[in-house]
Amino acid sequence: MLRDLTLLQFRSHRRAQVAFDGRPLAIFGPNGAGKTNLLEAVSLLSPGRGLRRAQSDELMRRAEAVGWKLRATTDAHEIETSALPGEPRRVEIDGKSAPQIALAQILRVLWLIPAMDRLWIEGAEGRRRFLDRMVMSFVPRHAEVTLAYDKAMRERNRLLKDMVRDPTWYHALEVQMAEAAGAIRANRAEALIRIAHAQDGSATAFPAATLTLENEGPEDLAAALDANRPRDMAAGRTLEGPHRADLQAIYAEKDAPAAQCSTGEQKALLISLILANARALRGEDVVLLLDEVAAHLDSARRAALYDEICALDAQVLMTGTGAELFDSLGARGQYIEVTEGPEGSQTQETSP
Ligand SMILES: Nc1ncnc2c1ncn2[C@@H]1O[C@H](COP(=O)(O)OP(=O)(O)OP(=O)(O)O)[C@@H](O)[C@H]1O
């Protein structure tokens, strides 16, 4: 469990400290106060660019622009991650420099943010990212395999753009891509099975989603890449493989594709999936970040969400503009009010 987090020169926070007591944490305050910035800080305790996919320099407080730092304590580890201006972010675990990917072994950080409300109707890339984050929560090594695939594909794309025709240049790269693709396919399949199991028979107020993967690419990717080089050369890039896969969801009860569901139904599907993801990770150190999750829900659904959150074996952080949004959570939650002060965001623990 995440016990403690300190933000230094991070976005609107000059210095902020949060001590988690294990109850779901409700963060409330007016628009622009710095609530999402707190969730973003927690999201950076996992590999990658966090929930806004920001560049490192965007994270440092503009007033001083001296870099940023986050310090966190879990039950078992001390994590520090920081960056100086113009430099990539660094990670230290228990005082020793570590690769970002090592963070995936400590906390499984999952999130739902308002930008994902359009996930089912926008392009496949966002859905693929959503899928791969779920997969990474089950198989932390998935991040490495995906990176290896992307790196080999970028090199192959460069050869294609340069109109290199000699097959010997391609062979090793295509074999690497095919090997990584096999692992990506297997990891994704495992994740979908685990999500389906977590939804089966669970008493939830949120609709079950049947997930399928489309356009995964051929089983024998090495042979397909070898055969389709002229086509890819004409396009200037690789046209098949796991980087083109698309995640689709069916609102099971209505047998309707997610993209044809109402805005509220689409949101409910996402909540259902993220709760299933957290349930499927029982036993791991799971942190669930729900940004403005209560806003679209009627009061009955909101109460149901809080009941489910309290029953989860996961640490949950939520934001909302007003404390009244968390009325039905009551004393089961921990509360932090965020306001905008002359020195940037101010955080203060309050009671319900
Ligand atoms: N690098 C930065 N330096 C200083 N302030 C920043 C930086 N990046 C963002 N901010 C400020 O942080 C605030 C936004 O914070 P955040 O997104 O956490 O708000 P919020 O409380 O979640 O608001 P809302 O309820 O509108 O979603 C804005 O005032 C923005 O100007």
Automatic annotation (TrEMBL):
Family annotation (Pfam families): SMC_N
Gene Ontology MF terms: ATP binding; single-stranded DNA binding
BP-aspect Gene Ontology terms: DNA replication; DNA synthesis involved in DNA repair; double-strand break repair; SOS response
Compartments (UniProt record): Cytoplasm
Residues annotated as domain AAA+ ATPase: 21-343
SUPFAM superfamilies to which the protein is assigned, alphabetical: P-loop containing nucleoside triphosphate hydrolases
Residue positions binding ATP: 29-36
InterPro entries: AAA+_ATPase, DNA-binding_RecF, DNA-binding_RecF_CS, P-loop_NTPase, RecF/RecN/SMC_N, RecF_2
Keywords: ATP-binding, Cytoplasm, DNA damage, DNA repair, DNA replication, DNA-binding, Nucleotide-binding, SOS response
Main location: cytoplasm
GO-annotated cellular components: cytoplasm
UniProt xrefs under SMART domains: AAA
Role of this protein: The RecF protein is involved in DNA metabolism; it is required for DNA replication and normal SOS inducibility. RecF binds preferentially to single-stranded, linear DNA. It also seems to bind ATP.
HAMAP family to which the protein is assigned, alphabetical: RecF
Homology family: Belongs to the RecF family.
PANTHER family per UniProt: DNA REPLICATION AND REPAIR PROTEIN RECF (PTHR32182:SF0)
Protein name: DNA replication and repair protein RecF
Organism encoding this protein: Thioclava dalianensis
